[in-house]
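Hi Prof. W.,

I finally got the Protein FixA prediction working! I wasn't sure whether to trim anything, so I left the full sequence exactly as given:
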Amino acid sequence: MKILTCYKCVPDEQDIVINNEDGSLDTRKADAKISQYDLNAIEAACQLKQQASDAVVTAMSVGGQALTNAKGRKDVLSRGPDDLIVVIDEQFEQALPQQTAAAQKAGFDLIICGDGSSDLYAQQVSLLLGETLHIPAINGVRNILSLSEDALIVERELEDEIETLHIPLPAVVAVSTDINSPQIPSMKAILGAAKKPVQVWSAADIGFSAAADYSSQRVAAPKQRERQRIVIEGEGEEQIAAFAENLRKIIN
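And this is what came out:
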């Protein structure tokens, strides 16, 4: 069984600089790291090896020059995948998720993604993959109950109930952060990651050639506002009236 787990390289938020004049974000000096939500996807994919002894887990990412970082590749492989495929091209810096073409080239029975990315959290990858590949796509999965050669049984939490779904394979599953707690790689795993195979593809290798599907107009930090520091003490009608009056001033 071939399991693909998709991840995204995002700027480390600790290294992002905010321009005080316009609130724009400067990520030029920020190191790239695995999106926090995708760590859950990688962990979930590797845990499925216990249910399918013949499972091979391939980590995959599509993007720009951030994927050339050897440290980042080692970090991914130390978390359990058997191999890694990265599709690197400048046109993917401002493109919609293009894991579809890469997945078709690699072959798969199951694709596991995080529910969103820790930079933009658009929650689009899994749904676009399923729609484009014409296979089932389920998001918000909090538990994978069982895996067989032709089906997957999962749980996802809705507003007031837990839904159990039987999904025929091949399929795309987006997991939530409730599904597991990603393990910290051991020293043995980190050293062993250097021996695992890595394939580097270009856009041409997967037959992709197109103009950017979107352009980023502006990404900025929210404006900082000075707190009014209004504290209304007590539980009587006067305090309630004072609270309501302050709300009216803010709304109007």
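Residues 2-206 form a domain with the Rossmann fold fold (CATH 3.40.50.620). Does that look reasonable to you?

Thanks,
D.
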